[in-house]
Amino acid sequence: MYKSIMIKRGSGGWGGPLTIVPTEEKHKIVSVTGGGIHPVAEKIAEMTGCEAIDGFSKGVPDTEILLVVVDCGGTARCGVYPKKKIFTVNVLPVGKTGPLAQFITEELYVSAVTEKCLSYADGLSATETTPSATQTSGRPKTKDQAKAEIARMNSGQKENFVTRLGIGIGGIVNKFYAAGRETIDITIKSILPFMAFVSMILGVISASGIGNVIANTISPIASTLPGMLVISFICAIPFISPVLGPGAVIAQVVGTLLGAQIGLGNIPAQYALPALFAINAQVGADFVPVGLSLGEAEAETIELGVPAVLYSRVITGPLSVVIAYAASIGLY
Questions:
Q1: 93 near 72, Cβ under 8 Å?
Q2: Mean pLDDT score across all residues of the chain
Q3: Helices 249-264 & 192-208, crossing angle to 10 degrees?
Q4: 222, exposed or middle or buried, with CB in 10 Å at 0-12, 13-18, 19+?
Q5: Whole-angstrom Cα distance, residue 176 to residue 214?
């Protein structure tokens, strides 16, 4: 028997609270996190009586998904499922951000969720908590509805050339304005905070002397082709790459550290290109099921495609390092 639950945001979180009511049609809790089914997803499935599924190993049709648990640091996964009107729980304290931020709403998304944020909800029916009912009741008309209403009002009125020209120019200006606004929004909310984070990390490393330790440990490994092949292989291991992937934070921080060591002369400059490929073998590994889902792939395709891509990285990761090493010969 299914049970309803309420999910509240945790410390530093955003969105919610979400009231989740399972039905016979929607009863799957999908965990799109690295390292199997997340404990939060397991707890939600246990409390609701639903089935918890690892999104990296098995594909699930969108029509059967009740809720998705992600560990997104602020990239596309935050907004992919809200865009599909699917409840989304992020275990990280990430708010309305990323390229799909406009689809992240408090009715569909909640973040910084732990097991303590879960509680039972009583006296609610499924129609009271589905995304469609939540978003349509008492809300303004959608853009399509507004356009249809304006079209009905203007029916029978013939537009002249000047009117059509004005509407066309206004549409172009509006698109450029919207693009600029989204660019500034992403820059302020995503790019600048990460730049500040990396600057702080470099400052701590320089002041604490950790940089010397890194130079003495990473330099010998990253300054040889076999060492970079080992780094690439480790980053591409199927059960490690989805963990290293979210937000590409690990790759960017390590890349910054390697760049600093190259600048100091501890690592030869000709190893910059192969080192870039070595530390990025895991990039996108956490996004594979989401990408296939965006492409509207069948459940069987996702189930087989995710492990195929992850295992292929074990081969293509080191191979890209070798190709980059060969391409960098004579560049410096």
A1: no
A2: 77
A3: 50
A4: buried
A5: 45
Alpha carbon distance 182, 190 (integer Å): 11
Could you identify the residue written with the tokens 């010397």? 212
At residue 6, the pLDDT reads 92
Is the distance from CB of 117 to CB of 10 less than 8 angstroms? yes
Question: Which of the residues 50, 72, 117, 235 is marked catalytic?
Answer: 72
Nearest partner of 28 among 56, 64, 70, 81, judged by Cα: 64
Strands (E), 14-139: 18-20, 28-32, 51-54, 65-70, 87-90, 109-111, 118-120
Answer for the pair 59, 300: CB distance below 8 angstroms, yes or no: yes
Bond prior to 17 in cis (omega within 30° of 0): yes
Query: How do residues 77-107 score in pLDDT, each as one tens digit?
Result: 788 889 889 999 998 888 887 778 888 999 9
**Cα–Cα dist 284/320, whole Å:** 15
Q: CB of 76 within 8 A of CB of 56?
A: no
- Which positions ≥6 away from 55 have C-beta within 8 Å? 30, 31, 32, 68, 289, 302, 306
Nearest Cα to Cα of residue 18 among 113, 100, 94: 113
Q: Looking at this protein, which amino acid is placed at residue 168?
A: G
* Active-site annotation holds for 72: yes
